[in-house]
Amino acid sequence: MHHIVYSSQVVGELSEGLLREMLVKFREKNRQLDITGILLYCDGQVLQVLEGERTVVEQLYSVIEHDLRHRAVAKLADGPVSWREFPEWSMAFAIASPSAFASLAGYCNPNNPWQPRNEAGLLIRELIREFIQQTHLII
Ligand SMILES: Cc1cc2nc3c(=O)[nH]c(=O)nc-3n(C[C@H](O)[C@H](O)[C@H](O)COP(=O)(O)O)c2cc1C
């Protein structure tokens, strides 16, 4: 089992509503690929977790990375994981408040000095799990 976590900024008119429509398609494809995860959205910013079989996750990420509907794609974690954090979600979706998103993205930043690099993935998983427990906006 493998996961990749990245952040990005959507381009142009990619609204929350449009993103929800796109999610229907993403979920269908992720189901076929046995990919699970979550997409957090806040004011044009995205943080996405992709989990599944390593080569499948890597291939999907390399497609997503080049998608022109977002930019500044920054990988925050890429490595093996022992279990899926979102086993029941082909792609969960949550709207984060600006303050919650900022603190989550800040903590997930690999350049953050207090974050031990080799534990980045684990830390991100813990933070996201904590975030999800606090939010009621999972759709
Ligand atoms: C922010 C963002 C998140 C995305 N997440 C996924 C995803 O979880 N699964 C997926 O299949 N495509 C996702 N995409 C779309 C891919 O970049 C790509 O358009 C799609 O996989 C192509 O599918 P197709 O080859 O079946 O047309 C995402 C795109 C953006 C902009």
Automatic annotation (TrEMBL):
Domain BLUF positions: 1-92
Domain of life: Bacteria
Protein's recorded name: Sensors of blue-light using FAD
GO molecular function: blue light photoreceptor activity; FAD binding
InterPro entries, alphabetized: Acylphosphatase-like_dom_sf (IPR036046), BLUF_domain (IPR007024)
Gene3D superfamilies noted in UniProt: 3.30.70.100
